[in-house]
Fold this protein.
Amino acid sequence: MKSSLIFLIPLILIILSISCATKKSNDIIRETGLLDEFKIFAYCGPPLDEVNEQRYTEIANAGIDVLVPANGTFNAEQHFKALDLAQKVGIKIIPIDLRLNPFVIKSDIPIDTIAIQSIVNDYKDHPALAAYLIKDEPSAELYSTLRGFYEIFKAEDPAHEPLINLFPSFASNIQLGVDDFKKYVRDYIDIVKPTILSYDFYPFRAELTKKDEWFNDLSIMREESQRVQIPFMLFIQSEGIKNHFRVPNRAEILWQINTALAYGARGFGWFSYWTPLSDQGLPQEEGADDKLVEQHYSAMIDKDGNRTEVYDYVREANLYLRKAGRGLDGWKNTNVARYENGEMLKGGNSPLITPIGKDANLVIGTFSKDILHRIVISNSSWEKTCEFAIKLTSGMKVKEVFTSIDATSAQDGKADEVWILKPGGSILLDIQE
């Protein structure tokens, strides 16, 4: 995805085919299309000369469900090759078709209905199609225009989601088009009326990590998605950009997925799978002021086609999410709380479990389904090990450990006693009366 500021690399996309699955209870998030089951996305597939079954099998083996090919794949012929391979290996595709260039849509550009119809007619019947891309990181001034695009896509193909992916909060007011991030998100939902909420956030900078901003954005996305009962997901970091982003290590990869999981995220997208070229393979507009030049390095696959250590980190995270993320399908995220040094921060709530200990640096998400409760407890640090005891609300007991990663019991596996979480680690506990 193209961004005018190098530190805000787009996160192209996401998502969903749409077949509305209505829940029995009105207070359960509506899940649509691909998000009726937890899904994992990735941006930037193999370059054109590497688009083959072996490479696509490698993508599927990494635990990726949906790929945004990009990296030179921008027309129907190229996309059909990708779609056919995706169908063969069991994944899906979100095409970026430059008949409707999502990186140059502006409020004064008329909607090209014929181009939309042409795109939809080409792709809509392919079983490996996941969604259409409308726009990445829009300004709020585009919302009314984007609503028009959205409505035409839905009229032409009700079965697939037209995707729009939002900026994170640290975008400038000029980029956001408003001076308040929550308003940016709320106006988008209220004007465009999407069936999913998607944004990107790359926290690991060359010399710092945007920790508070990370949790603030998760809190807002959770609140706004629950307000209108739609699921949310986010694109996260799996590469470096010289002088701007560092390459996440294993703990940092796990920290991203596990903290966001506690806030109720229903899917993740990795930026990126194949290390992008400096221009991400996008044709540059003649006379453009903001030509895209970024020195990407060490994504899951490097520029020469070799697996990096990040491939192994992300594959491990994805396989963990196959149980942890999908283990929350159909559960309502009722509460979330963040603890630092054993103290719950303002605005949080953890009604069933209280962590005890000065090293209790945690995010705790409470999920419920009927009379059942599943608790996500994640280390809120990517640097420090967390040791804590568990205090249950009167009348509750731990039934079992549903799953965990980098978590050990300090007392012979007794789940309701003392736990140790390594940096980025997490545990899901089932508790009952």
The longest helix spans residues 211-228. The longest strand covers residues 418-432. The CA atoms of residues 364 and 377 lie 5 Å apart. Confidence is low (pLDDT under 50) at residues 2-31.
